[in-house]
Amino acid sequence: MIFKFNKKHLYALYLFICLVPFLVQAQEINSPNKNLILKFELATNGAPTYQLSYKGKAVIKPSTLGLEATDVPSFMDGFSITNTEQKLVDESWNPVLGEEKTIRNNYNELVVTLAQAKNNNRYIRIRFRLFNDGLGFRYEFPKQDGLKYFIIKEEHTEFQLAGNHKIFWIPGDYDTNEYAYTTSKISEIPLLIKKATPFMNAQQPIKELAVQTPSMMKSDDGLYINIHEAALINYPSMSLNVDATTFKMSSHLTPDAVGNKGYMQTDAQTPWRTIVVSDKATEILASKLILNLNEPTSYKDVSWIKPVKYIGIWWEYFVAGKSTWAYGVENNVKLNQDFTKLTPNGKHGATTEHAKEYIDFAFANGFDAILIEGWNIGWEDWIGNWKEEVFDFTTAYPDFDVKAVQEHAAAKGVKIIMHHETSGAATNYERRLDRAFEFMNANGYDAVKTGYVGQIIPRGEHHDGQWMVNHYIHVAERAADYKIMIDSHEAVRPTGLNRTYPNWVAQESARGTEFEAMGGLAPEHTTILPFTRLMGGPMDFTPGIFQTDLTYYKTGGNQRVNTTLVKQLAYYVTMYSPLQMAADIPDNYNRFPDAFQFIKDVAVDWDNSYILEAEPGDYITIARKAKGKEAWFVGGITDENSRTATIAFNYLPAGKKYIATIYGDAKDASWNEKPQSYVISKVIVTSKTVLKQYIAPGGGIAISIKEATDSEMKGLKKI
Ligand code: NOJ
Ligand code: CA
Fold first, then answer.
1. Pocket test residue of 310, 311, 421, 581 for ligand 1, highest count of atoms within 8 A of CB
2. How far is the CA of 489 from the centre of ligand 1 (A)?
3. Residue 48 — pLDDT band, cuts 50, 70, 90?
4. Which ligand 1 atom minimizes the distance to the CA of 317?
């Protein structure tokens, strides 16, 4: 029989052609250890969707992906899959500074190419990387005819959570991330958002119900889920709109001055959207997924990037009431006026003499550097006026002799950390940046703390928008040309860019110690920060306050730092930063030399980190091995409740004895009564030791462990 192709066959063929795409539309990949499964699918309208499960439990239920543009058709639906690629990557790399000497980068990748027939087959790619500790994905816009420039109206990445999780959150805001955390169910956010959004400098709270990332959640059945982003470059920062009844979160980008959300030119890509997930809270803290999703650095020479332990003319501006950033009593100054003619207020902190005292203290106690704030003209009138030319970054006040201070520091081998407060005027800073860095090079300064207090200029731009994101990166890259390290305050929250720009060594970008002098931090605050803000990168939290009762200074007010002294020690281990401050005033360290010894000894750069215990909002215990040394440090903290920490030492080499110096809260200590009551003891430990250690309410535990000779160990108890 001769086969005759008729209408019926044509219809069958048509059906087949239509159905084939559906049959191949679903794509699935596993994490290398198979705990996570990612499924990608097109909905019937051709909208991309994904879902994620962990050990069989839903982490993200089917959720839509897409972007809306202002000037070209949207990237939302009408897609078909034209290509898919998969690969397994397993490699490792060494960060310049870090919590681990070697980081493993192990994931399964799925790249889906999606074409829109309705838009002349314009195409995009979605790249998924599934690690053992979570998922990263991003949108890519390859160079092609018909897609060159476009403007983003909004990104519509959805995260359909599987339930009414507990969430540790701060309100969505385009300009500040210095809010206190609220812990609640997702469904309770609408009731709490007003209280969670008090007045803050330069704030611009998001009008819709939204929270910031990194957003930390815990499901009723014990899954820990963290949503953030990685490699935020040439794109605005993402907050999450919250649907408090369906538990769906969706991306909310920071707009620019005219309301647009991102200017794109192909080739282009968005940052990675990250979902770190585990049934163990400790694994969330150990995750290196965000760093892994950032590009390796292109810097050829990184030898000048060093860990820094520093003190500073700083805390006294907040508490002692005896000194100020400003030199003059005037409150209306301009850069081009003669600052030697100002009437001195008699309280200027950054004087030549005072700087020398700090340098001597740094030298005597082995610190690498001192930060000097308030050395440069303009502080009489620096905040609240949306003023562009506040600082020039190169002219010192009449009572600060740059050369003399530098010579004194150089003679003692102490570095000086420059301070560039921009007061939010990024334009002014960019204009003066090269002069400022040349000045630093000429005077031997190799690190700078930058600051962005106040409303941003260009006026109408936000701290977290695309323009400013590019500004911070520009500053980091330019600084690298001058071999300068950056510690930025009030910049956009970090997204692991310290891998790509390793001289951007630390950031504040959250509510830090300064708030202890401005209303206080809740005792639980620092048990949350490592699960939120620090997921993106190191924090210049500025720990080390020994005089926690601030009424001590008799400057009025009933303030206190809401921790025990020992908890402040523990922060050097629990709050990772390769640039770490001892923030208190030297006098206070001189009053407690035995406790100060821990700060002097503690490392800030590490070979290995071991997250021993953790629960967001409750407690964290971490042990770390110092980079290149046989020395280990343990830090443990609790919230307002006392607890007994279980501290294992199984990371110590087996068969050897070590001396552990334990800095513990005394039995009568607590954050609000007898915070300075502590006990220091020395014991012998081995890899088999497990220590049960009491931690006071709002307290901590700090341990330093070192190799020791037999004679050093004589008379010490083994535990
Ligand atoms: C805010 C910063 O966080 C703080 O450390 C600094 O002292 C002030 N701005 C002044 O720049
Ligand atoms: Ca700040």
1. 421
2. 7
3. very high
4. 7
Structure tokens at 145: 């005819």
Residue 496 burial (CB count, 10 A): 25
What's the rounded Cα separation, in Å, for the pair 448 and 415?
A: 11
384 three-state secondary structure: coil
Domain boundaries, the chain: 15-292, 308-602
- CA dihedral in degrees (570, 575, 577, 578; nearest 10)? 30
Whose alpha carbon is nearest atom 3 of ligand 1?
489
Q: Closest Cα to atom 2, ligand 1: which residue? A: 489
**15-292 adopts what CATH topology?**
Beta-galactosidase; Chain A, domain 5 (2.70.98)
Q: What residues contact residue 718 under an 8 Å CB cut-off, 6+ apart?
A: 657, 683, 684, 685, 686
Q: From the options 3.90.226.10, 3.40.720.10, 3.20.20.70, 3.40.50.300, give the CATH code of 308-602.
A: 3.20.20.70
CA distance 526 to 574: 9
Point out the ligand nearest to the CA of residue 376.
1
Q: Is the pLDDT of residue 340 over 70?
A: yes
Kindly tell me the burial class for residue 4, based on how many C-beta atoms sit within 10 Å of its own C-beta (0-12, 13-18, 19 or more). exposed
CA of 201 to the centre of ligand 2 (A): 9
How close are the terminal C-alpha atoms of the chain, in Å? Answer: 92
Model confidence pLDDT, tens digit, residues 92-128: 999 999 999 999 999 999 999 999 999 999 999 999 9
What φ, ψ does residue 570 adopt, rounded to 5°?
-60, -30
Q: How far is CA 322 from CA 179, 220, 319, in A?
A: 28, 50, 8
The string of pLDDT tens digits covering residues 455-476 is: 999 999 999 999 999 999 999 9
Using a 6 Å CB cutoff, which residues line ligand 1?
Answer: 314, 373, 421, 451, 453, 489, 508, 514
- 451 CA closest ligand 1 atom index: 11
User: Could you count the other beta carbons within 10 Å of the beta carbon of residue 180?
Assistant: 17
Q: Rounded CA gap, 478 and 184, in Å? A: 42
CA 509–ligand 2 middle distance (angstroms): 7
Pair 489, 508: CB distance under 8 Å: yes
Give the C-alpha distances (Å, rounded to integers) separating 576 from 535, 537, 571, 605, 706: 10, 8, 8, 9, 20
Q: What's the whole-number mean pLDDT along residues 11-25?
A: 50
- Residues annotated catalytic, as ranges: 514
Q: How far is CA 466 from CA 178, 386, 508, 532, in A?
A: 20, 20, 19, 22
Q: Residue 264's beta-bridge partner residues?
A: 150
Find out whether the peptide bond into 48 is cis, omega within 30 degrees of 0: no
The rounded Å distance from CA 512 to ligand 2 centre is: 7
Atom 10 (ligand 1): residue with closest C-alpha? 421
Q: Which two tokens stand for residue 454?
A: 């106040």
**Cα–Cα distance for residue pair 709/714, rounded to 1 Å:** 9
- Tokens 């991003």 found at: 138
The ligand that comes nearest to the alpha carbon of residue 371 is 1
Residue nearest to atom 11 of ligand 1 (CA): 421
Count of residues for the chain?
719
How many angstroms is it from 488 CA to the middle of ligand 1?
10
Sequence letter at residue 615: E
Tokens of 155: 């990104």
Q: Which atom of ligand 1 is nearest to the CA of 421?
A: 11
Residue carrying structure tokens 């599934």: 130
Question: Could you identify the atom of ligand 1 that is nearest to the CA of residue 489?
Answer: 3
Share in percent of the chain as helix, strand, coil (round to 5): 20, 35, 45
Dist. CA 357–CA 365, nearest whole Å: 12
pLDDT of residue 555: 77
Q: What's the rounded Cα separation, in Å, for the pair 134 and 136?
A: 7
Ligand whose nearest atom lies closest to the CA of 417: 1
